[in-house]
Amino acid sequence: MFRLISGRNLLTLALAACAVFLFAAPGQAQTGALQGKVLDAKGNPLEKAVVTIEFTDGINRKYEVKTNKKGEFIQIGLAPGNYKATASFENLGAEAIPVRVRLGDPTKVEFKLGANTGMSKEDAAKAAALKAVFEQGVALSKEGKYDEAIAKFTEASGMVPGCYDCFYNVGFNHSQKKEYDQAEAAFLKAIEMKSNYVEAYNGLATVYNAQKKFDKAAEASAKAIELAGAAGPGGGGGGVDAEYNQGVILWNAGKIPEAAEHFQKVIFMKPDHADAHYQLGMAFVNQNKLADAVPMFEKYLQLAPDGQFAATAKGILSSIKK
After folding, report:
1. pLDDT for res 269
2. Domains of the chain
């Protein structure tokens, strides 16, 4: 089954001490890549096949690349998110595949053009219908029409068995409405279909954190970290987000030293993660390690001089240095 996902991560505000903690959001400074092959129906490489890569998360971005003698291509510098990749070759037609690009190692895809790619006309029609309904759900969700989006994703889930992304997005939209029981059930259903679904575990962590079920939130976030780590560098930004979210959950549970460890891991994995520097600085302040806090706030202001925590960071620095 082809991969579908809305590309919108859950965001939950968590109030604690002097700071407002935000769950990690996609699309920060780093980029990803798309790598693949274009073959004919017999598996032979196609040289100079044209591959277009179109961003489908609301901003008009389009890239074009051609394959080499081995039928291979790579496009770097892609912002994380959802894309439609289309390969075409003279007299062999075209094939379009939805792909999700993450941070880190390239997302990989393979095209087979010409003749029959193994999908019957009936299956192709079902896939096209599912894609149309799913994309309607994505559009409605982006417009904040969560009830209508839930209806579309629910409809899509009944069209093709095993559409775990359908249930993930049902969960996301319920969480936007603060319908946490329904969101939890949908995320669990997605995990039932795909046991290593990092985003769904992060969704569960967000839902539990919003309900102050910190033990369950920590368990879900830890599972997301484990799965993201098992996926290796190609797992993209999921591991960074999961580590950051785990830090937020532990902070909200009053486990400041443990939270600090996770923020330190985020910085190790992604040195330009501005918010992790700020949150680690706050953790040091909470533990009265003021000398350790200073470079964290200074780094935050260097990375995000106009960021959401800039005013607070400046105020704390001024107070510490007096």
Report:
1. 78
2. 13-28+122-321 (1.25.40.10), 32-120 (2.60.40.1120)
